[in-house]
Design goal:
Elements (H helix, E strand, L loop, with lengths): L56 H14 L6 H8 L7 E5 L7 H6 L1 H4 L4 E5 L7 H13 L5 E3 L7 H14 L5 E5 L5 H11 L6 E5 L5 H8 L10 E5 L1
Parallel strand pairs: 1-2, 2-3, 3-4, 4-5, 5-6
Helix pairs in contact: 5-6, 6-7, 7-8
Protein name: Si:dkey-288a3.2
Keywords: Leucine-rich repeat, Repeat
InterPro entries: LRR_dom_sf, PP1-Reg/Actin-Interact_Protein
């Protein structure tokens, strides 16, 4: 066996000869990837909440007034009265909006409060929420994780968007534990979205009273229990 001499390699180069090079197709495209350390595999969404530690109640109140002016609505005296006695340490006891008419723009004006403060209980009973306002406000409550206890009883005009927003709140909130939903007709669509949301929610109490549940909507909602999840306690008074 003889070893190939260096002279045998004369005329050869380290790169393949042209006849060995693959021909590029017309219009061929190339994809390159950055190093592993530069690849983004996920992200953490930042909630643009105000730094409460640097705020005073007077600043929160003033921010709410400016927000009302921006949205061309009058500040709610009931809200101003509650803010004046609210503590910035931990969750405030309650944001009571029972019986306050909240149209879409009034709901939008509340965001500066929800991004600054959280509450043990938010009462929206009989707030006359309409579709756009309900959708916006419930989205805010979810985004800022505003409360573990929400009452939205006696709101009959939430519409499809409002019910969808409520469904997302029930499914995605990590702090909502109790929901009161009384004196609202749970017809087929509301019963469907509510039952689906309950399958993956963290609710421990769902309070339903005078909801006109019967027939198929009742069976739809009752069927949630078959999955072994949903609210641990359902208070039903049909």
């Amino acid at each position: 066996m003889t070893r190939r001499s260096d002279s045998d390699n004369d005329g050869e180069t380290s790169s393949p000869s042209p006849s060995w090079r693959p021909k590029k197709c017309k219009g061929e495209k190339h994809v390159s990837f950055p190093p592993d350390e530069e690849i983004v595999s996920g992200f953490a969404e930042r909630k643009d909440a105000i730094n409460v530690d640097s705020l005073t109640l007077a600043e929160v109140i003033e921010a709410y007034k400016r927000s009302c002016d921006k949205h061309q609505v009058e500040p709610k005296p009931k809200i101003l009265e509650q803010l004046e006695v609210t503590s910035l340490n931990g969750r405030a006891p309650c944001l009571d909006l029972k019986g306050e008419r909240l149209d879409h723009l009034s709901c939008e004006a509340l965001e500066v409060i929800l991004k600054s403060l959280s509450f043990d209980f938010i009462n929206l009973q009989a707030a006359e929420l309409e579709e756009n306002g309900a959708s916006s406000l419930l989205d805010m409550i979810l985004y800022y994780e505003s409360t573990p206890h929400l009452d939205i009883s006696d709101n009959t005009g939430m519409g499809i968007s409002g019910w969808k927003a409520l469904s997302h709140l029930i499914k995605q909130s990590v702090c909502l534990l109790r929901l009161d939903l009384c004196n609202v007709a749970l017809l087929q669509y509301p019963a469907q979205v509510l039952s689906r949301a309950l399958l993956s929610s963290r609710l421990t109490v769902l309070h339903l009273q005078s909801t006109c549940l019967s027939g198929r909507p009742l069976f739809t909602l009752a069927g949630t229990d078959d999955g072994g999840q949903g609210a641990e306690e359902q208070i039903l008074a049909l």
